[in-house]
């Protein structure tokens, strides 16, 4: 079923994002994690996507299994990196044949080995281009787009991000999934500003539980999100007192409070970036009052 229709039927909700392993020998363990997290009854499960050849094929097979064998509603990621119209059409056709009705259209990040990658040289330079192509070619497909409560690290301002978010919705986006953030005021301000611009599609907030100092610094370096000073101080103090196990406790408690506040103040649901960690997500889900 299309995600906007699912949201209309059930809100608030939890949804999950998975990062499938590239090595097929790691798949059994990955699917064990997915099976455990089915206990959270996620509204949908997004699956990150490999640009180009082999990893893209892996993503397709994993999405099929989530739908066919595990009874989950997948949200398949698509990026502009290395994409061509023919390749995207082939991939989305395969999704449709597998009864997958939801895709997330992203620009994507430059390849690690090519930081000067030129998106404008390809057929799809922006997420809005990809969203428009999918909606035009597959009008029955529900298309999600991304939003940034904090400015994207390549944007000059939040105003510019809001402009491009509106463009993505006007190009075919049926709902928005946000980049991770740690200050809920950013999310509600983002939604309010979009509403003032005439954008009223569901905006699903993305929440990342911090489980270690190392992973926090790595993830934040990639997306440019900021951590409130008091939270960062609590994480650092926990690390000094008890290492990453203490950091995990502080991070999970914060994720529960953040998620509960989002739900209580009217967010349609919460999208958990799972990091493929079943225990952490199960703990968060068990403590939320939905």
Question: What would the average pLDDT be, to the nearest integer?
Answer: 89
Gyration radius, to the nearest Å? Answer: 18 Å
* Main sheet properties: 8 strands, parallel, barrel
Output the CATH class name.
Alpha Beta
Count of the domains? 1
Helix content: 40-55%
- Provide the β-strand percentage band: 5-15%
Q: Which strand order do you get reading across the main beta sheet?
A: 1-2-3-4-5-6-7-8
Oligomer: single chain
Q: What spatial form do the alpha-carbon principal axes imply?
A: globular
Protein architecture, described:
With 290 residues, the chain is α/β, with parallel strands linked by helices. The protein has a single domain, classed as TIM Barrel (Alpha-Beta Barrel). The protein is 48% helix and 14% strand. The chain has ten helices and eight strands. The protein has helices at 3-9, 27-37, 54-68, 85-97, 127-137, 158-170, 184-196, 213-223, 229-264, 278-287; strands spanning 14-18, 45-47, 74-79, 102-106, 142-147, 175-180, 203-207, 270-273. An eight-stranded parallel β-barrel has the order 1-2-3-4-5-6-7-8, surrounded by five helices. α3 (54-68) links the parallel β2 (45-47) and β3. α5 (127-137) runs parallel beside α6 and α9 (229-264) crosses α10 (278-287). The radius of gyration is 18 Å and the shape is globular.
Kindly list the characteristics that best describe this protein:
14% strand, globular, eight-stranded parallel barrel, TIM Barrel, alpha/beta, 8 strands, 290 residues
